[in-house]
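Supplementary Data S3. Sequence and structure tokens for construct A.
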Amino acid sequence: MRAPHHPVLIPLAPQAAQGFTGGMETLTEDQRYAAICARDARFDGVFFTCVRSTGIFCLPSCPSRTPRRDRVEFAPSAASAVERGYRACKRCGPLAPPGASPSEAAGSLSDRALELITAGALDPGPDGAVHVADLAARLHVTERTLHRALVEATGSGAVAHARLARARRAHDLLTSTSWPLAQISAASGFGSERQLHETVTRIYGRRPSAIRDSTPAAPRASRSASAEVALVEAALAVRRPFHGQGLARWFAARAIPGVEHVVGLRWKRAVPLPHGPAVLEVDLGVPRGPLPLRARLSDPRDMAAAVSLARRMLDLEADPVGIDAGLRSALPVLAPLLESRPGVRLPGTPSLAEALLWAVVGQQITTDRARALLTEATDLLGTALPEAMRDEHVHRLAAAPALAAARAEEWFRGPGARRRALTDLLAAPPDPHLPLPELREELLARRGIGPWTADYALLRGARAIDAAPARDVALLAAARDLGLAEDFPELQTALAVASPWRSYAVMHLWHHRDTLPADRRTLRKDRS
């Protein structure tokens, strides 16, 4: 029998002083084995346990019997484990952990590549082929450079990760829908039913029909009677702790009526996807395990894009253990905030363009005022969802950023220079797949875009984990309350030591500011 589960604190390598990232290279073999003996969920997605005697691979927190030390080896990613010949454990479902290497900063080449792969960038094209060269071109690198970056970060190349992503989608559809295999094959990104059968059987050790038959009996989603909507469900793996309350409050405070709705900790948002609109719904309050995603899609082929977008908007690739440890070491004054809000995440937007729209409109005005302006833009330019996709709370898409900017004179009540900056920026927005330093430089070169606007937009629209928007009055109000800084230069100096996790320090300060009495929340002006 397996030993009872007792939490264990794994001794960290010296790099922890700079912020433990949880990567494979920071843990010894004995530390990894101690983590699986304790079923320590903090390390789910950081590494995978491969059991030689059974040929399966598991998450560190797997509830199955602990294998003997001499019977295990460790892999840096699920794709790497599959390439070594292991199949997925039936109990812990190790194919759905966060895909990015936790040892790399967000915005790295491998991080950007994995996000695109999860969204279906390497699904077979009309010719039935997978075009890695096209993915490399989107990322502005050579195919060789892309391959080297992925192998160094995860132990596997792009094709292996794409194969795994398709298998994950197929598994979710097999267990949550009654669709025929041909439809699941197409929606998962496989070129044929035969490819679906071969890949799923190899990775899961069971035929697709056996996976479906083994799922507990429950109502399964299907196409609606009007054939306008496909209902799908997926499990969004997340490294714990996860501060869903902070995300829920943030989204609720900025929700455009009819587009986004938050009740309790259940978040719902209408979003545009490649083949049509969709509605994403996630319960942010699930205390353990993955977060359940329920999606209403115009086209089943958008499942990959829906999962990828939900993961990015909820910052599910974050390594909260490493981030919180790094912040606690760099800024001890944040310790009470870290204790009260472990696992804070960066609230994302569906696109960098939408984040830029919020950032420019929100310059030097309150969040409520920015939301009112963008609500007016959506009233004027928003698009109604298909009838079968609507409900009383979510029934339209927000105004497309480019269209909102082009017709800003009809809804934007602000300085003419800011309206012109908005129009120029979103008429030709920067390529969101550029490396973050290049993306920031391009933004700063645009008229009317300063450091605050660029950093706020990148934090929300590109998951820039090391951004600290300059001269933010809400940040300074929180910093003064904590005794961290008294003026803007001192605040920037104080936050610099939190690198590479400054964005998370910023989120903690913004959350703290919202808890202050009204007379201590602002200095002179607020920011959205």
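Construct B, processed identically:
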Amino acid sequence: MDRTSVIAVAAAVTVLVGWEFWYAPKMARQQAAQRPVAAATAPTLAANTPTSPVTPPSFQPAKPLPATEPAVAETITKAATLSAQYEFTNIGGGIERAVLLKHDAERGPVTLNEFGSVPIGAISETAGDGTNLGYTVTAAAGVVTCERTAPDGLRVVKKFTLPTETSGAKEFVVNLDITFQNTSAQPHHSANYFVYVGSAAKIHERDLPTYTAFEYFGGKAVETSVMWFEPGRIPLVGIQTSAGKEKYEVAAKEITWAGVKSQYFNTILTPLDEKGEVSAKGQGVWARRFPLPNEPKLYGIEGALAMPGFDLKPGESSTEHFQIYAGPKDYRLLKQLGDSHAEIMNFGMFKIVSIFLLKMMNALKGVLGSFAAAIIVMTFIIRGAMWPLQNKANQSMKRMQALQPKMTELREKYKDDPTRMNQELMKLYRDYGASPFAGCLPMFVQIPVFFGFYAMLGTAIELRGSHFLWVKDLSQPDTVTHLFGFPLNILPLCMAVTMLAQMQLTPKSGDAMQQKIFMFLPLIFISFCYNFASALALYWTVQNIFSIAQLYITKNQPVKALKKIEQPDTKKRGKR
């Protein structure tokens, strides 16, 4: 690597680290109050509670109600199970809030669709409009019914059936049946209509807002985060290249489900057939983002699934079936809903690695009783499997270190001819059977594991609330205090220190400038880990300690003396 390339790489790394340290803390603020809800001990239903007339909160004006349908006062009907409390509103006829009683945030139980302008299960003919119509809401025996009759005689009845299961995915599933009945004397035609999946926003103050997204599955999972709506800009410079986008719309056939998600929770709407099996009836999707209360620079997202239209003769009716999953992003639970539902985890290009690590971590936790212990043991297993490869790399680096005097001579001799210098260096490596890249091989092998962990920990809920020593939550940064407004996170700093110690013990190979580049590695890893789940820094710190121990154990192993390898005589072989 020439000096210009070295300087370019070093500058790029410095910019990356600076950007992460400047931008990540800014995204980690959210001051939104969450309403505490009393825990339920059994499935219950509460009477309608009238409130003052309301206009649904929104970031843009709502479509006015028709003159024949004046504004109505909102009433809230609460229905609870052992796992969740659901608040149904008569405006839009759907679930205004879903409060997960078994999952806590900083200000009380986790609340889904807390800031959205449209209830879960609302319907409209035009995406984003006409969701503020009044319904009559009744509740009995674990079923909440929302009903209204339009001026043209179309009667809409929504039946929400609450879950009775207390474990597995079904404890978070509400079944929704929507019946359309033509009560008029004229045929009724309806084009595509939209069923709303609700909204998602940050749950924890330090959740990364980039995980707030709308997603749908139509043969493959397609994700649209709140950042998609931003104006196009040149990175770092900030010059705008394109306007921001107000909405996201896609027309597509055979959509299996649509959902909104934050970092660790999601709401998924799935069409079902008459047998209750997952069907692919969706015809398109729509989504938009909105600013969060008291945080205009942070956004939530809400969306809807387009369903095919229908024709009804006078007196005819048609019923569509859906399931609403409003709960944690738990891979095991999502797999129970259907193979495609787990795609909302969005593990990325290292999906196979992430799933393997998640299953391995859960299995070890079942034996050890602690996620922290599971991560430590899993790290020892992974590093133990790589022991022979690391030993071989250490031996190669020692050979490269022994070649340093000869390499220095060649660099000095051909300093004015870089091409010839590189040719001679390659001949030197070939003559002595050395490779300047052999020492990097263990690091390259570990990269998929690191990013597999990164993707898995960034979206899987298993570690949420797990403790370890001073760490209160392994799914969050382990901040112990703030210095001048900057969070002091211990594990990433321990990770950097152990990386530096490992580098000091590692046999030196390559030129001095390349060695200086490797000194940037701790900064690069800190940029990934500092404001991320502390479990990632725990894993990398433990593997660094393992590597240090391995270097101590193997440092006195004899290295074969440098000896030229006899090269075949290609000229003689060619004559034969």
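DSSP finds 13 helices and 26 strands in the chain. The first strand starts at residue 44 and ends at 45.
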